Amino acid sequence: KDADQKPDLWIVFLTAYSHYAVNAFEVGAIDYLMKPVMKDDLERVVKRLDKLGRRKQERANPQKEQSTFPVCCFGCFDVRDVRQQLIKWPTKRTEEVFAYFLVRQGKYVSKWELLELFWPELEENRALNNLYNTIYRIKKVLRLMPLSPQIQKMNGGYILEAKRKLSDLGQFLEFLEVMKQNKGNTDFSAEASLSLFFSYATPLFGTRDYFWSLHVQKYAAEEYGKLCHKLLLHYYEKNQFAKGEE
After folding, report:
1. Residue 131 vs residues 100, 109, 125, 162, 169: alpha-carbon distances, Å
2. pLDDT tens readout for residues 135-189
3. Which residue in 189, 85, 181, 192 sits closest to 141, CA to CA?
4. Which partner for 110 in 93, 157, 170, 207 could form a disulfide, CB atoms 3.0-4.6 Å apart?
5. Residues 111, 113, 115, 118: what is their CA dihedral angle, to the nearest 10 degrees?
6. 1 pLDDT above the threshold of 50
């Protein structure tokens, strides 16, 4: 009854008796916990609540404007074709493997690395067959996209060849590399970095729970903080306090 009156209320059913599971479904519970509650059970529920909260926030606060990048990774995971239409992926695994290539864009990725990461439970022949089918599906999607990205086969592995401006993540990572190379250079172009600064959002890849992307998200967050500090110092030194506050 409360769930009907309060659509924002999420119910987790907790009981010591398994036969009360039916009651949990009747009240629209999002999960069902049996006593004694273990740590893994709590982590599963918290993860689900977090995902529901993020989805609600995304619906309540849609992007103010469409990204200028064909692929948007910060705060969501939107891939668009040459007509700026959202691309529908044939499988979730195809989408995830493409996301992994984006993180490793321009770098060699061994097929054994991909097999261990995405199909560790399968025997080798079946895993290889899944990999080849997934690569084929990704290539079909790439043909629909602007900027002509390609996956090239190389020495038993693959490499995603694409311009950095294919995605906001790629552009952001490239910007960080340039900043590190010019660490001793006092010439800092704040205006050139602002579009990237304001394009950053969390979580990386939106509601997709890619465990392998956590270290990338952490790295981007740390570097974003450094960039924020650098911009503040830049505007402070030029007495441009309004821009600094923004």
Report:
1. 13, 12, 10, 21, 24
2. 999 999 999 999 999 999 999 999 999 998 999 999 898 888 887 777 655 456 7
3. 85
4. 157
5. -130
6. no
